[in-house]
User: Which sequence fits this backbone?
């Protein structure tokens, strides 16, 4: 591949290269030639790309290179016990106590003793440690590990080496090169679980660390899965997270997928969702971003089968100097699919919310129905919202649209509530909740929706009645 | 404009040859030697008898340009331009400052006549009186630019009575140097972007307008640009200043002969509106779009920007883009004055192998500023049509308001319609609303029209005219009917 | 004279017309009634040439000329007019502009002289007046924001302006209150002439009290299954469509 060669390398960019050089023999799968090759290829991609910065169009509003001071050392799994109290502390009781099959990935490592491996097996799902899987890589996972995040269609696909950011993604490359652990979940044809699978990621108890993990989910034909990913810190002094989730949704499968991000104030959260949807899939995704100093949520969706419906919503609730960026690339490669995105940001203090969503409708993807909406509520003078909804449409028989709004709380509504006797702070909170509520409503499962409604109320400092 | 005698009926006359302005004029011209260098910049400046300050200004721009590289972010693709293969100055030989119309080369007059731009003031007036649409309108004053020079500016005397200065920019440099010096480059600095910087170095001619304080310009002003010479770049520069409380409506039209090679047009337009002033700038861009195989056509790389410098000032851009092989243009408003307002109304039609990447920027700097963007894109044939726009509210722009609506229509399955808006709200009291849709003409609408006797092409033209109506109504009457007809022509051959 | 022989048509894979025969002599008004889904509206669309319907067999001759190969606009020029059950909205196109464009296109195709603007305005105003259409309505975009009654009156106005020889009225009574129905029916009756044939498609007998047909045909499952005089409509009002495989009306 013809990649641009980086001329200048910042300190942190070099540190990441060094850590690969130091670690690669000890990383899981080092003995497996295919995995070792995939890792070194990925590191080469990263080496030529460097960290993304604001001159890369897809990172225009999140200058990662400038914001990352130094590369933290890779987390070393201690294997220490983690009890329910600690999980509750990290995730908050509302999320921690959701009834579910539990999967725990702590300190970059899959923790089988904390995960419901057996119960899942009985329910028809296979859960394995990623590290173990890498030692004997099954054939079907090879292509998944080789994914680079490159755009397949549209304008930029024709010139992936430009500054569009539509070429190989360095964060995905770093994940492939450096991932230490994670999980692989497979649902066979027709398997439907009776409760959600909750994958809990916990990191950073002491010194600043980096944690690089991956979750791979493959669903069989007609399977049904409710997947929750949650991310929290363990009270450490700093965390750089690179978490990647890959889902391959088999024909006719139904997936509910939610990510809850509640890391500590200094955390840097880099997340990638790579979704491949086959025919007649019902996919309903949600991302709740509430913690960390910097969060970047990349979501890439490939429609590879006809008749598929994807619905994605996100809520980012930010304060102080938090910065959260949700960037999506949705590629309609086949006809007769539907995509919906709804993004809501509530921005207080000097926080900054970013929403970019590019919907590409390839020449063959006739009868595509694509709509998106990005909305921000700015609660304070210093807050900022940047959005770039984007349509690239090459097929004529489509219905596509997007909308974006930015504004304050509606003063007329506020007055109305106050006139009904509701004190101002409460009235404001109510209106914010209503705003976020439109996104939360997209969550299909009630216990989860209620939990996040509660988390929102906690954030706003109001009591739910 | 030519549309004076047009009526809506002409919408239906779409069996005209695709590009009816494609003829070339056989006229002897003086050219600068081919290529670009400091000497060429000096040559242009000397030809125009410019003062030293302007030559220095050009040279500074030229030196900066040498350090810049062509922008690549737009959704347009074309082979690299060899800037040494172009001529940067071409003027009809007969052009030695005609004092009146009688001195203008008859060949030139005939050219404009053929384009539907009568330069004789009597004819313009007669045309108005004979207009079908009835209402008495003032005439339209025209500055006719042929390749690198202004041929003639009509109605100058009438305008002078009102205190309005309307002349070519070369003339303004001589007659009103203080105004030119004060405002030139104050909206689009020489360092702004690759093409604007190139323009600053080699600009040849263009129009200059100054409307003094409190004056409402008594007639529509317009410039008609014509590229004639082969391999000649056209780099015109327009500067319009509306002083406090002034009003002006300005129209711009452009055509070029059909030629196999691409022609470069890199203009810069600067508008300045002081307190309570209003500038309405309309463009009907009909440069040669290239043939049906995508050969030839004009590269239209234009920087247009208005500065709402004063309180409660207003700048409104209306554009109808049907021509050019490649269009790269973003008429913008800097809303600096408190209470100022920017508007952008655009129809962009692409057919054949045309590529359009166009839109606007609304930069809200002052308090209580507002902006409105209505963009209608129509793609047909093998063309690609991108709306790209930025709306930003800076920290101090409290109560900034923007409303944006972008609608795209696709005709046929080999074209593309794209929407790339950027919204940046750095002030919590700013309220932005943006909406965009992409669709095709519904089969049911087409069937309904055809059941009533319209052919498929007529039906499409009719529906498209309805689609763009929100924008066309912002055009001066003179342009509206002409434009409706143009839309029909531009979409010819888009069916089947 | 309209002669439909063994007409088969389908939409996508579904056959809807299954060998329909129908003859309407010049100057007569025929009604087609039938249960929902019997193919009445499909017949209207096929006569007007809608490309969504594929004709697989049969012929349709208008005054001896096969029209199935013609484009919709060519059929309009030949004199076929369809009053739509759901008239289309076209944003941004003033009703007056649309009318003038259509009328002049048809006149041109028929070798007649096009109307000048003042002539046309005069003709439209007269006819609009007869149909109690407010001239303000003509300035509004075509059918956009029109009430059900306004849309249907607009259809009849177009019918009267385009001077067709074969009028097909598809459920013109649907969505009309009794006053609007009367106005529309009067408009239609005014256009009855010995040179003009009409096909009135309706689910209910109600309309036929106002537009009294020469013949009534019952359509079921894509075919004409029974024909009779105007009294047949009254009979159906009593008995419903049950015997033709439809639900009781």
Assistant:
């Amino acid at each position: 591949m013809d990649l641009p060669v980086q001329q200048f390398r910042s300190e942190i960019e070099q540190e990441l290269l060094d850590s690969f050089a130091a670690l690669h023999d000890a990383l899981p799968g080092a003995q497996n030639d295919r995995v070792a090759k995939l890792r070194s290829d990925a590191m080469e991609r990263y080496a030529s790309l460097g960290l993304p910065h604001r001159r890369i169009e897809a990172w225009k509003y999140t200058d990662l290179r400038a914001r990352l001071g130094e590369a933290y050392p890779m987390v070393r799994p201690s294997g220490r016990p983690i009890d329910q109290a600690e999980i509750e502390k990290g995730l908050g009781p509302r999320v921690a106590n959701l009834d579910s099959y539990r999967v725990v990935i702590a300190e970059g490592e899959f923790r089988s003793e904390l995960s419901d491996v057996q119960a899942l097996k009985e329910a028809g799902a296979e859960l394995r440690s990623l590290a173990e899987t890498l030692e004997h890589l099954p054939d079907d996972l090879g292509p998944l590990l080789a994914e680079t995040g490159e755009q397949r269609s549209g304008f930029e696909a024709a010139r992936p080496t430009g500054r569009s950011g539509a070429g190989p993604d360095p964060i995905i490359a770093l994940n492939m090169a450096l991932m230490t652990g994670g999980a692989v979940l497979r649902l066979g044809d027709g398997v439907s679980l009776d409760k959600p699978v909750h994958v809990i990621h916990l990191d950073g108890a002491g010194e600043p660390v980096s944690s690089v993990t991956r979750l791979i989910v493959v669903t069989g034909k007609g399977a049904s899965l409710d997947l929750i990913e949650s991310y929290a810190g363990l009270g450490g002094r700093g965390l750089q997270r690179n978490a990647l989730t890959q889902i391959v949704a088999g024909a006719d499968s139904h997936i509910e997928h939610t990510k809850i991000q509640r890391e500590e104030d200094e955390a840097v959260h880099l997340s990638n969702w790579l979704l491949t949807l086959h025919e007649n899939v019902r996919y309903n995704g949600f991302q709740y971003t509430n913690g960390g100093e910097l969060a970047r949520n990349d979501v890439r969706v490939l429609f590879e089968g006809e008749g598929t419906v994807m619905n994605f919503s996100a809520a980012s609730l930010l304060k102080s100097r938090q910065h959260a960026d949700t960037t999506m690339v949705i590629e309609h490669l086949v006809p007769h699919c539907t995509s919906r995105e709804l993004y809501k940001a509530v921005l207080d203090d000097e926080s900054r919310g970013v929403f970019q969503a590019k919907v590409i409708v390839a020449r063959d993807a006739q009868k595509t129905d694509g709509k998106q909406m990005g909305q921000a509520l700015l609660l304070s003078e210093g807050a900022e919202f940047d959005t770039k909804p984007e349509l690239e449409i090459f097929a004529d028989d489509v219905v596509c649209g997007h909308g974006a709004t930015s504004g304050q709380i509606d003063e007329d509504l506020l007055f109305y509530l106050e006139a009904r006797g509701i004190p101002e702070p409460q009235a404001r909170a109510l209106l914010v909740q209503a705003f976020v509520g439109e996104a939360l409503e997209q969550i299909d499962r009630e216990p989860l929706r209620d939990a996040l409604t509660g988390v929102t109320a906690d954030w706003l400092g109001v009591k739910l009645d | 404009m030519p549309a004076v005698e047009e009526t809506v009926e002409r919408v239906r006359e779409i069996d005209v040859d695709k590009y009816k302005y494609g003829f070339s004029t056989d006229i002897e011209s003086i050219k600068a030697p081919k290529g670009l260098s400091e000497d060429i910049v000096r040559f242009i400046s000397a030809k125009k008898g410019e003062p030293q300050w302007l030559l220095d200004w050009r040279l500074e721009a030229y030196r900066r340009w040498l350090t810049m590289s062509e922008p690549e972010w737009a959704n347009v693709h074309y082979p690299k331009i060899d800037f040494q293969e172009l001529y940067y100055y071409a003027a009809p030989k007969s052009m030695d400052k005609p004092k009146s119309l009688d001195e203008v080369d008859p060949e030139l007059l005939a050219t404009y006549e053929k384009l539907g731009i009568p330069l004789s003031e009597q004819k313009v007036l007669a045309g108005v009186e004979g207009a079908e649409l009835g209402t008495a309108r003032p005439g339209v004053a025209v500055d006719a630019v042929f390749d690198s020079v202004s041929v003639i500016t009509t109605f100058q005397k009438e305008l002078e009575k009102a205190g309005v200065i309307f002349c070519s920019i070369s003339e303004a440099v001589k007659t009103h140097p203080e105004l030119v010096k004060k405002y030139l480059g104050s909206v689009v600095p020489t360092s702004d972007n690759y093409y604007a910087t190139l323009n600053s170095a080699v600009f040849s001619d263009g129009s200059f307008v100054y409307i003094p304080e409190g004056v409402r310009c008594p007639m529509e002003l317009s410039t008609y640009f014509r590229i004639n010479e082969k391999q000649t770049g056209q780099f015109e520069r327009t500067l319009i200043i509306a002083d406090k409380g002034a009003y002006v409506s300005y129209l711009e039209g452009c055509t070029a002969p059909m030629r196999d090679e691409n022609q470069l047009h890199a203009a810069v337009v600067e508008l300045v509106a002081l307190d309570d002033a209003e500038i309405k700038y309309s463009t009907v861009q009909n440069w040669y779009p290239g043939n049906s195989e995508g050969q030839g056509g004009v590269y239209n790389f234009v920087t247009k920007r208005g500065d709402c410098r004063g309180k409660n000032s207003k700048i409104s851009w209306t554009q109808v883009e049907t021509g050019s092989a490649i269009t790269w243009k973003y008429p913008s408003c800097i809303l600096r004055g408190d209470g100022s307002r920017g508007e952008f109304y655009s129809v962009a039609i692409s057919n054949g192998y045309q590529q359009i990447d166009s839109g606007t920027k609304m930069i809200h700097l002052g308090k209580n500023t507002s902006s409105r963007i209505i963009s209608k894109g129509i793609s047909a044939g093998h063309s690609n049509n991108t709306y790209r726009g930025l709306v930003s509210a800076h920290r101090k722009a409290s109560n900034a308001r923007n409303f944006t609506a972008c609608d795209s229509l696709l005709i046929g399955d080999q074209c593309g319609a794209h929407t790339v808006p950027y919204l940046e709200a750095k002030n919590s009291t700013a309220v932005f609303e943006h909406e965009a849709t992409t669709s095709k003409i519904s089969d049911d609408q087409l069937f309904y029209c055809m059941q009533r006797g319209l052919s498929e092409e007529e039906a499409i033209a009719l529906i498209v005219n309805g689609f763009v109506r929100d924008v066309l109504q912002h055009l001066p009457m003179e342009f509206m009917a002409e434009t409706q007809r143009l839309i029909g022509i531009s979409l010819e051959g888009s069916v089947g | 004279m309209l002669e439909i022989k063994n007409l088969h048509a389908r939409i996508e894979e579904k056959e809807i017309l299954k060998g329909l025969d129908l003859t309407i002599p010049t100057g007569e008004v025929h009604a087609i009634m039938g249960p929902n889904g019997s193919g009445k509206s499909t017949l209207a669309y096929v006569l007007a040439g809608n490309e969504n319907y594929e004709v697989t067999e049969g012929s349709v001759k208008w005054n001896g000329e096969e029209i199935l190969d013609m484009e919709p606009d060519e059929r309009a020029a030949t004199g076929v007019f369809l009053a739509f059950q759901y008239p289309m909205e076209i944003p941004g196109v003033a009703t007056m502009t649309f009318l003038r464009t259509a009328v002049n296109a048809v006149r041109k195709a028929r070798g007649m002289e096009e109307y000048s603007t003042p002539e046309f305005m005069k003709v439209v105003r007269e006819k609009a007046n007869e149909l109690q259409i407010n001239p303000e309505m003509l300035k509004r975009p075509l059918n956009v924001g029109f009430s059900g009654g306004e849309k249907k009156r607009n259809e009849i106005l177009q019918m009267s302006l385009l001077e067709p020889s074969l009028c097909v009225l598809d459920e013109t009574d649907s969505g009309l209150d009794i006053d609007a129905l009367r106005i529309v029916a009067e408009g239609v009756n005014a256009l009855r002439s010995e040179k003009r044939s009409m096909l009135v498609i309706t689910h209910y007998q109600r309309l036929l009290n106002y537009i009294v047909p020469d013949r009534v045909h019952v359509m079921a499952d894509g075919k004409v299954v029974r024909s009779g005089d105007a009294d047949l409509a009254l009979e159906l009002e009593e008995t419903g469509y049950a015997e033709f495989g439809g639900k009781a009306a």
The CA atoms of residues 130 and 182 of chain A lie 5 Å apart. The radius of gyration of chain A is 21 Å.
